[in-house]
Hints:
Largest sheet of chain B: 6 strands, mixed
Number of helices of chain B: 10
Distance between the termini of chain A: 51 Å
Number of domains of chain A: 1
Helix content of chain A: 55-70%
Shape of chain B: globular
Number of helices of chain A: 14
Order of helices and strands of chain A: HHHHEEHHEEHHHHHHHH
Mean pLDDT of chain B: 94
Low-confidence stretches of chain A: none
Oligomer: heterodimer
Strand order of the largest sheet of chain A: 1-2
Distance between the termini of chain B: 34 Å
Amino acid sequence: MPGRYTPLLILSALVVxxxxxxxxxxxxxxxTQLTMTAYYTLVVVGLCIxxxxxxxxxxxxxxxxxxxxxxxxxxxxxxxxxxxxxxxxALLLRTGLAVSGRDLYGAALTTLHPGLAFLCAxxxxxxxxxxxxxxxLRLKGHYLAMxxxxxxxxxxxxxLGTPALGAADGLSDVPAxxxxxxxxxxxxxxxxxxxxxxxxxxxxxxxxxxxxxxxxRAGRALAAIHGNEAAAQAxxxxxxxxxxxxFVFSAILAAAAGALLTHYTxxxxxxxxxxxxxxxxxxxxxxxxxxNLWGTIGASALLNFLSLRGYFGIYDDAVFGGCLVGxxxxxxxxxxxxxxxxxxxxWVRGRRRT
Amino acid sequence: xxxxxxxxRQLNRRFGGLHAVKDICFDVxxxxxxxxxxxxxxxxxxxxxxxxxxLPADGGEVIFGGRSISNWPAHRVAGAGLARTFQNVKxxxxxxxxxxxxxxxxxxxxxxxxxxxxxxxxxxxxEARIRARAGELLDLLDIAGLADRPAGALAFGQQRxxxxxxxxxxxxxxxxxxxxxxxxxxxxxxxLGDLIRKIRALNIxxxxxxxxxxxxxxxxxxxxxxxxxxxxxxxxxxxxxxxxEVIRVYxxxxxx
Lengths: 354, 256
């Protein structure tokens, strides 16, 4: 099918172009926010296919993001040195799955290898997604929205109330994660460009997987579930199983984003698990046009970047809430849909008349 | 006589105080066209939903191809080779006609989510096969010209044809048609009769619910008559037309 990958190539070119532009204009400090934007965009890519394509809303994806981030932060900062004699810690050390070093003050510090912590983060998010998804995905529409909202709220209150997770302060001093030789997920000006490409590379990879999925047998099954669940079942589609698998996939993407952003910024706080974060992801998918992967990525890049640069000031959350309300009122099909402009025009005309 | 393809045994379903399907028993022989008729509210669609697994039964058994499929979920029933259409056509409005029919090939293909994401080589061959098969079915139904049209934008009669093509993509042994002639004009109904015969010629057994008596009498090998959830008659069209109980139910006591 010619042209399917064209937007992906355009996205790749934009990513490279943006980096070159910041280098040329001496504004490479923008890359920090652009890198963070990429991780938030990865969440939205997963949410786009879940909501837009399969029609299953989730107002709890910040919960999965936080599960990823907090699991990573906890496992890579929890000091195993005092427990080095215990069999599990000893085994981890012997197999190289734990790394030893010294902390800021020179005390012995032994922590889990970031790669293993990353896998644990993904596995935990997947496990939680299965446990939550089985009962919750039987619900539809508003009920599903409320149930996932409740899940997000639980994660938020748990991280806020758990001293081991830093309570209101969150966790910090998360070490770097060496993803590949020369690519170290960590803050700091030195690795800025590598981190930028690693993060957007992941977005492009995620988009590629989602794009392939949309044009496959499973993708048709997901769209069929969105179109008419009873008909999908009558055609032999195990709708519960497909919804669950997709939910787990999107949760894994969110957890991966959370874990890597935590390495990048060196820590994570409870605000990442907040309800407004979940609303923000949903608002971005709505602005992007629900099933429109490219619109969603574009909306995410723009809105997240502006937000991270602080352009929205104290109205940060209000902007995203406003986006959601505005989109639902005037453009439920997304900004690109032609009907949107007709509706806006009609609304303006109606206003004038009264 | 060989064993029937479908055996319905003492099937029951209540909705609160309403006994919608009451002790229904009948068989459908292989390669027969069997019709279920009855006044509105007789329980015909409920009976279909029970057979297809869209509703759980309160009691009784459904045996399909010698296997009990009682209370199987709908997707498993479909996988066993039992396809259906809906009284109020249920197409996927978010897809075009060809894609709708391709969804019908779901149970005849295997690629899962991971295979789809990574475009495993065998999935591409499978996709090509599903697409080709869907195209053949559009030809069979004489709607090949609609392949790229959004399913939601079609005329009602065309939507019915797409739904039948989609059901046939399952390569079913038994096809349940729920009021296939509803909303069709005389000419379209005539063509539907021909189509149903053509489908039977493909070795597919057909069970249909229908109100259009001329169509039912014309194509059916056998007819089951329901009234208020109970079977009141079963037999060949000529027998049913003379059956006093059927005449009473349809026309009132004076005519019996």
